[in-house]
Amino acid sequence: MIELKKRSLLQAAALVAAVAGVTACSKTEPPAPAPAPAPVAAAPAPAPKPEPLKIAFAYVGPVGDGGWTFSHDNGRKALEKEFGDKIVTSFVEKVPESADAERVIRDMVSQGNKLVFGTTFGYMEPMLKVAGDHKDVKFEHATGYKTADNLRTYDSRTYEGAYMAGVVAGSMTKTNTLGVVGSVPIPEVVRNINSFTLGAQSVNPKIKTRVVWVGEWFSPPKETEAATALINGGADVLMQNTDSSAVLQTAEKMGKRAFGWDSDMSSYGPKAHLGSAVINWTPYYKKAIGDALNNKWTTGQAWWGVKEGAIDFVSVAADVPEAARKRLDEVKAGLKDGTLVIWKGPIMGQDGKPITDKEGKEWVGSDVQLGGVNFYVKGVEGKVPGGDKK
Are 227 and 211 in contact (CB under 8 A)? Predict the structure, then answer.
């Protein structure tokens, strides 16, 4: 009995041990710890942003002149929109064509400007001098003809706008006498007076043109006085190669007609305004800045007109006859595609004879010859100050 009980106890113990063994074997092993992530390499620092190109403009007149300087400043503003933070622009207005110009241009260089625009003929010699002292700076001179390795010139064919104004003037005059207020007697201005006359004569051969010189680019009082003298002398349609709207405003007050010059001046004398011969500097300025930013800038000379989008005739008055409008459209199209050449020889001088060069050859109006115009064509009265036929 005792033996049987003992055997039962041993069997029970064995059973408990077996169950315990099975239970122990059924337990899952804890998961191995995940491996530590590999260190992430730090992202490379972004390349430093290039410094903006600093650009300065020297203006001969005030930006609010409504004409020449106003048109240049419109081009500068267009650059800021086009190139954004790639450039920084600044300007100095009313810089005289004197020793002050050199001082201002040197100051622009000292302020870190690497591209400097001088926007009038009288800055040529000062810019040449400063350019020679600062070879790391690029200079652009408007209307000049002298260049250097780091100085190039640019200009607009304003004579194309003058010719178009002449087409309208010749169609609108009642006295057959036109008037021009001239600024400074350099080839650019003389060329424009002649082109205005040639345009008028293309629709009205009876045209005569009178000129009064004021000796300055921007002088509203002198421009007003000159316009008044021309009107009192019989001119009933006026053009100017000066920078303010004074001529147009004078024509408005005296009941005559006139044109805007360099910019759209229609708001200055809406009753007198026949149209505006405008300059758009933006296309050239965009090219110049693009050249500088892309290291493609080289010296040279540029002379842009209707073909390049630099010259136009806008805001034609409602009472201009349809025939004149049609002719105006033909002139624009011809200038754009090159089929119309304004200065095509023979060019007749005041004496009615063909203009000749120093060698006696007939003057054909090449760009080289146009750059040195110092004579009046047939129909323009008076003499060019300091000029001659050669």
Answer: no
CA distance 28 to 294: 70
Domain definitions of the chain by residue range: 53-157+282-307, 158-279+310-370
200: buried, middle or exposed (CB in 10 Å: 19+, 13-18, 0-12)?
A: buried
* Structure-token pair, residue 14: 């064995």
**Both structure tokens of 41:** 């390499």
Residue spans of beta strands (DSSP E) within 284-365: 301-304, 311-314
DSSP state for residue 354 in the 8-state scheme: B
pLDDT digits (tens, 9 = 90+) for 300-328: 999 999 999 999 999 999 999 999 999 99
Helices 158-172, 322-337: crossing angle, 10 deg rounding: 160
Please count the helices (runs of H) and the strands (runs of E) in the chain.
Answer: 11, 12
CA-only gyration radius of the chain, Å: 38
Q: Could you tell me the CATH superfamily of domain 53-157+282-307? A: Response regulator (3.40.50.2300)
Selected from 2.40.50.140, 3.40.50.2300, 3.40.50.10840, 3.30.70.141, the CATH number assigned to the domain covering 158-279+310-370 reads: 3.40.50.2300
**Rounded to the nearest 5°, which phi and psi values hold at 152?**
-125, 165
Tokens of 20: 């315990």
SS3 63: coil
Q: Which two tokens stand for residue 223?
A: 């421009």
Q: Which of 76-90, 180-194, 352-366 has the lowest mean pLDDT?
A: 352-366
Residue 105's Cβ-count burial label (10 Å; 0-12, 13-18, 19+) is buried
Phi and psi angles of residue 236, each rounded to the nearest 5 degrees, phi first: -115, -5
352: phi > 0 → left, psi -120 to 50 → alpha, else beta; which?
left
Q: What is the pLDDT of residues 59-78, one digit of tens each?
A: 999 999 999 999 999 999 99
The reply to whether 158-279+310-370 shares the fold of 53-157+282-307 is: yes
